[in-house]
Amino acid sequence: MLEQRYRWKNKQLRMHVSVLDGKASPTILLKNALYLNQTFRKWMRANIWIYEDRIVYVGDQMPSLLNNCEIIDCTNEILVPGYIEPHAHPFQLYNPHTLAAYASQFGTTTLINDNMALALNFKKREAFSLLRDLRTIPTTMFWWCRFDSQTEILNEEEKFSHSNVKSWLEHDAVLQGGELTGWPKLLDGDDMMLHWIQEAKRLRKKIEGHFPGASEKTLAKMMLLGADCDHEAMTGEEVYHRLMQGYMVSLRHSSIRPDLPTLLDDLKRLGIDTYDRFIFNTDGSSSSFYEQGMTDHMIRMAIEKGIPTIDAYNMATINIARYYNIDYLIGMIATGRVANINFLSSMENPTPVSVLAKGKWVKRDGLKVEDAYPAIDWIEYGLKSMELDWELSMDDLQFSMPFGIKMENSVITKPYSISIDVSGDHLSNDHDECFFTLIDRKGKWRINTLLKGFATNLSALSSSFSNTGDIILIGKNKHDMMFAFNRMRELGGGIVLVENGEIVCELPLPLGGIMSDLFIEDLMVQEKRLFEELAKRGYSFSDPIYSLLFFSSTHLPYIRITQQGMYDVMKKTVLFPSIMR
């Protein structure tokens, strides 16, 4: 763990100084570069010396020794710091390694990652081994520490024990606690969560909120209890209230909340023209949403909306680094910082032509540098194909619930009274109600109900991708649902669409049934196909991946299907318990 705190050892630091003394050569020299100097808030020219992964000098001087030094004339290029994504959910079918590799091509060279999937699906020892090994890739990887599962799981006190949470909080790669999806429990008197917040503060780490629709008074209460930032503002007025209470405001543009254009217009309408308390985030979007870019896309939108260019770049770089107290490492082009540098064709085009990450080229002259991100052997971390040693039977697909769940949008579900006959093996395509089953991946329990609004003519879908890694079955034909389940099991996990006994579409998830091992560019192809086939069958919302993820997520209203059973979020009660098989 000391590797993170003491990034460079004494011998390396002495070598960095020796480069300035002319006793050793830089490894890269960027001559006459026009770069963003965030201290002076100006575009300035300088020579930038890099030794391995660190900027060792920025200024007018030239090194006296240039043996084996790569010299690049940057007279016609514009340099900005590598972008930072402060709110990555690196398990949205893709995995942390493939997300890092893809993001780097758009200039995002630092990810601050949610640890939820690690906390739920990995042993602590393996999770920390993964964190350690991911330090060797060009992307700089930091992490969060979750305080709750954001659902009702059967072993919450084990997964989120004081010992486990404390170990995560104390890890040097962890920069914050949260996000606080369980904040209602905190307000209701959960002193253990408050203690963890206090521990995070003691360790000089931040607390990320999750306060959609929160009132001014609630925002004030959460600030008093330790929250530092929130990413859930959906209007300019909500941004204003957060600023008034002293929050750092994380402006979001994601696959389920593409809010940035509206937020930027609202800032202008409200006369908010100071940007030091703003940062950007993409909130773990589905891979196909990233086809147009990541953080670079948000910077471009900000510039097009009239945000001063330097402020637009700062919201993706130095503002984030200063907020997390890591500006001594990243977020700016200055002596001593990690050599994360984006080379642009113009100030108005934030998508880089070339990218340096930790002093290594990951993109050069518009082309991806092959093998910059060596493959990971996930089995080393205990993550292999999902193995189900139990059989699904027609008895598991018995539906007698008096009410079901109705989708209001991609992620919000409300209760509704079931009025159709559900005793048969098929449902009509004349309505938008489907059978819905959540079943334990170990085969110990299940819960069955009806789902309204997901699709009108979906025969069967089986998914091992869910909030908890349990199995979701949706469809109108029980026999096809059985077929889809069995095919998903053969794949070792994934999402499978079946119609009339034929596989329509499948998206394998061989990493524990929750992640793909494909490059994101290849995953996009599979994901788009899945989206298209679901749309043909009546799925009308923006993001089915998030629908699957959030069916169990109790940080959203109103009714959720959890390991404990059908759960009323507002009343915090289990309405119908899950059934043991």
Automatic annotation (TrEMBL):
Belongs to the metallo-dependent hydrolases superfamily. Adenine deaminase family. GO terms for molecular function: adenine deaminase activity. This is adenine deaminase. Residues 411-572 form the Adenine deaminase C-terminal domain. Residues 78-362 form the Amidohydrolase-related domain. It comes from Neobacillus thermocopriae. It catalyses: adenine + H2O + H(+) = hypoxanthine + NH4(+). Keywords: Hydrolase. SUPFAM superfamilies: Composite domain of metallo-dependent hydrolases (SSF51338), Metallo-dependent hydrolases (SSF51556). Its EC number is 3.5.4.2. The lineage of its organism: Bacteria, Bacillati, Bacillota, Bacilli, Bacillales. It is an enzyme of class 3 (hydrolase). Pfam families: Adenine_deam_C, Amidohydro_1. The keyword tRNA processing does not apply.
